[in-house]
C-alpha cells in the first residue's frame, strides 16, 4: 500500500474552472438524489396521517404541500447563481448570502443544519427498528433491544461517511432510490391484498377518525389532526438539500433549467407514491391505520415479503443518511479549510490503492465523531423522531417557503406591494400558519414521549 499527495494540477480535466471537482451530474442523478432524500421511511406513516385527516383533507393536504414545494423549489433553482457575478453558490447558505445577506444567513444556517442533524438521528432509530422487526419476524412477543442495531448502523455510516462529497454519491443514491420504491411498492401491494381479502370491518370517513372511536376525545382528535399535518409537511421538508444537489450538475445546459426538470420529476414521483401509500393504506386499515404501514402486516404470510421490505428500508436509509449529512460535512470542512488553509491535517488529500480511494485525516476524524454523536443520541433518546417531526414542522416554512420566496423577490427586484409581491407573501403567510399549528401537534406528541423517557431504553 502506498501513499501519495493528490495534486490538483496534475489532471486539469478533473476540475471545473473554479478549481473544484468537475461536475458530471445530470437530470437523472439529481432526481435520484432528491427522491432518495424525500421518499424515506416516513412515507409509511402517511396512512396514519390520512386516517387523522380523512379522505378529503388528507388528499388536499398532500396535493397542496406538493404544489407549494414544487413552486418554491423552482424559485430556489433560479437563485443558484450569484445575481451580480454569476458565480456558483455551493450550499443553501451561500444562496441566502448572495441574495439576502445579513442576519438571515445565520438564521438559515441554524434552521438547515438543525433539521439535517435531527434527521440523521431519526434515521438511526428507524433503521434499528427495521432491523429488530427482521430479527423478531412474526413472533407476537419479542424482547430485543435496538441499541446494538444502532451501533451496527453507526459503524456502516462511519465507513460511508468517508465518501468525499455529493459528486461521489450518485451510485449510492440510485441504489437507495430503488430501495425506496421497493418498500413503497410492497406496502402498497400488501394494502391492496388486504383490501381484496376484506378482512375485518374497516371504518373509513371523509373527516377522519370520529370522536368517541376507541375513547378518542375532541382534544385528542385536534392534536392528532395537527400531528398528521406535521407528518405530511415534514415529508416535503427537503429544500435545504436542493442547492447541494444542483451543484452536482454539469454547467451545460444551464443548471437552473436542468434542476427544474429534476425537481418536477422527483416531486411528481414522490407525490404519486405518497398518495398511493397514504390513501390505499387508509383504505386497507381505516381508522386502525398503524403509524408504520408495514407493522400492520405482522400476520401476513409469507412473512419474508415483510422482511424484504424492512431490508429495503435499511438499505435506503443507509444511503439517505449520507445524502442528509453531506451538507453538514461540506459546511464544517469548507469553513475549516478557509480558516486554516496551510494545515496539512485539514487540507491534504491522500490516495491509496493506486489512487482508487482518497482520504483526508481531518475528514476521517471529524466525520467519525459526527456519526458517533448521532448514534449515541439516538440510543439516549429513542423518541427522537418526535423531535425530528417538530424540527420539520418548524423548518418547513423558512427553508421551503420563506427564504426561496424572499430570495426570488430580491433577485427579480419585485416591487413591494405589487400584485406578484402580495401573492408571494400571502403564500408565505399561509404556510407559516400551517407550520405553526403542525408544530403544536408535534410538541404535544413530544411531551407525551418525554413523560415515558428512560435513557438508553428502546422499545422491545
From TrEMBL:
Localization terms from the record: Membrane
GO cellular component: membrane
Database matches in Pfam families: Aa_trans
InterPro entries membership: AA_transpt_TM
Keywords: Amino-acid transport, Membrane, Transmembrane, Transmembrane helix, Transport
TM region positions: 30-49, 55-77, 113-134, 146-163, 169-192, 265-285, 305-332, 364-381, 387-405, 426-450
Keyword Repeat found: no
Source organism superkingdom: Eukaryota
Principal cellular location given in the protein's record: membrane
PANTHER family, sorted: OS05G0424000 PROTEIN-RELATED (PTHR48017)
Name of protein: Solute carrier family 36
Biological source species: Heracleum sosnowskyi
Amino acid at each position: 500500500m502506498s501513499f501519495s499527495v493528490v495534486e490538483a494540477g496534475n489532471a486539469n480535466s478533473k476540475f471545473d474552472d473554479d478549481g473544484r471537482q468537475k461536475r458530471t451530474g445530470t437530470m437523472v442523478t439529481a432526481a435520484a438524489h432528491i427522491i432518495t432524500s424525500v421518499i424515506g421511511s416516513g412515507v409509511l406513516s402517511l396512512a396514519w396521517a390520512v386516517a387523522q385527516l380523512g379522505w378529503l383533507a388528507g388528499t388536499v393536504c398532500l396535493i397542496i404541500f406538493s404544489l407549494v414545494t414544487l413552486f418554491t423549489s423552482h424559485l430556489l433553482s433560479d437563485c443558484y447563481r450569484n445575481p451580480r457575478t454569476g458565480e456558483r453558490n455551493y450550499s443553501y447558505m451561500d444562496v441566502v448570502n448572495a441574495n439576502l445577506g445579513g442576519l438571515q444567513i445565520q438564521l438559515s444556517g441554524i434552521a438547515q443544519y438543525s433539521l439535517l442533524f435531527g434527521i440523521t438521528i431519526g434515521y438511526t432509530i428507524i433503521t434499528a427498528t427495521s432491523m429488530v422487526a427482521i430479527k423478531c419476524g412474526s413472533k407476537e412477543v419479542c424482547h430485543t433491544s435496538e441499541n446494538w442495531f444502532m451501533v451496527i448502523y453507526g459503524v456502516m455510516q462511519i465507513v460511508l461517511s468517508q465518501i468525499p462529497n455529493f459528486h461521489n454519491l450518485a451510485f449510492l443514491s440510485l441504489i437507495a432510490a430503488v430501495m425506496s420504491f421497493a418498500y413503497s411498492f410492497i406496502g402498497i401491494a400488501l394494502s391492496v391484498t388486504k383490501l381484496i381479502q376484506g378482512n375485518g370491518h374497516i371504518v373509513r370517513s371523509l373527516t377522519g377518525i370520529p370522536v368517541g372511536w376507541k375513547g378518542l376525545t375532541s382534544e385528542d382528535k385536534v392534536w392528532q389532526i395537527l400531528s398528521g399535518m406535521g407528518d405530511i409537511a415534514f415529508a416535503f421538508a427537503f429544500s435545504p438539500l436542493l442547492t447541494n444537489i444542483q451543484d452536482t450538475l454539469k454547467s451545460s445546459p444551464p443548471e437552473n433549467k436542468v434542476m427544474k426538470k429534476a425537481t418536477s420529476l422527483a416531486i411528481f414521483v414522490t407525490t404519486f407514491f405518497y398518495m398511493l401509500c397514504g390513501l390505499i393504506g387508509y383504505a386497507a386499515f381505516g381508522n386502525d391505520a398503524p403509524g408504520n404501514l408495514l407493522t400492520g402486516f405482522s400476520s401476513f404470510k409469507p412473512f419474508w415479503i415483510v422482511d424484504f421490505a424492512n431490508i429495503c428500508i435499511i438499505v435506503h436509509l443507509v444511503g439517505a443518511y449520507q445524502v442528509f449529512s453531506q451538507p453538514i460535512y461540506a459546511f464544517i470542512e469548507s469553513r475549516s479549510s478557509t480558516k486554516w488553509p496551510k494545515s496539512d491535517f485539514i487540507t491534504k488529500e491522500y490516495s491509496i490503492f493506486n489512487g482508487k480511494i482518497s482520504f483526508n485525516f481531518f475528514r476521517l476524524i471529524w466525520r467519525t465523531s459526527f456519526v458517533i454523536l448521532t448514534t449515541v443520541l439516538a440510543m439516549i433518546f429513542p423518541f427522537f423522531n418526535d423531535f425530528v417531526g417538530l424540527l420539520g414542522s418548524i423548518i418547513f416554512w423558512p427553508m421551503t417557503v420563506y427564504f426561496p420566496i424572499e430570495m426570488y423577490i430580491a433577485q427579480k427586484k419585485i416591487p413591494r406591494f405589487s400584485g406578484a409581491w402580495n401573492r408571494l407573501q400571502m403564500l408565505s403567510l399561509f404556510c407559516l400558519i400551517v407550520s405553526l399549528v403542525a408544530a403544536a401537534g408535534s410538541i404535544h406528541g413530544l411531551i407525551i414521549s418525554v413523560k415515558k423517557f428512560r435513557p438508553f431504553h428502546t422499545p422491545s
